[in-house]
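Hi support team,

I'm filing this because I wasn't sure whether my run with guanine finished correctly. The job status page said complete, but I'd like someone to confirm that the output block is well-formed before I use it downstream. Pasting the exact inputs I used:
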Amino acid sequence: MILDGKAISAEMREELKARVQALAAKDIKPGLGVLLVGDDPASRSYVTAKEKACEQVGIHSEEIRLAATASREEILGVVHSYNQNPAIHGILVQLPLPDSSMEQDVIASIDPDKDVDGFHPVSIGRMMLGLPTFLPCTPHGILHMLHRSGHAPSKKHVVIAGRSNIVGRPLANLLTLKNELGNATVTLCHTGTTDLAYHTRQADIVIAAAGRPNTVTADMVREGAVVVDVGVNRVEDASRPRGYRLVGDVDYEGLADKVAAITPVPGGVGPMTITMLLFNTVLSAERMGGR
Ligand code: GUN
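And here is everything the job wrote out:
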């Protein structure tokens, strides 16, 4: 069975449209402020996809683009202007920044009440404590996808490959919370893990977020498990018009017949990530509107 992120996203975006309409009745239009620094083609395409998705559900979005050489002050200035702007309920600074040493300072300058990416230390602390906050989009999207497809992680053993601050570690955290989205037993594997296959073979749910093709192959997963593939890797392919194709972190072909459910790439986790950004932006507008 295919875990169809596109279909689940479409369902959730319909629900968001209704919430946007309810806000419109109160004269509130959710707004997302985007900052893109530099001209990395992958970042450009992610930002475009997010802006298109905003338009689709009725969220206003505006974009400021800075050159790759932009100074720390210029970048902080844009964040500050979005912080001050009452038409902006959510701020998205697309990562990575050309100078990655600025990232933590830039994230910390975002008003936590507008931190729809969920990357601010305040948001991460609140998430860790199980308090209401903006949850990071990819982990949150994965939880909703598992729930809505009938594979809720509660009481299951989830094995994650990858310890990034954006996916692996927040996901491990959310899955261990005692609430309706979590309540799982979690093993977090990474490049320091001696025998990844030993761990993934014990899993009811395997989540690959390592940023490397073929991190999880058919021999590493037990029959009937659920596999979630977070990877987005560009591999050269002269037969494609763009000269590359996208592959995930798992051997989809090898696994498809063995597992109970698996996410495709593209069309799995990616659309869910974008949907949760829309979700957080609408939630932010609802919170601010209610003040
Ligand atoms: N780069 C990769 N994933 C993300 C994300 O979810 N948000 C932002 N801002 N940048 C990213």
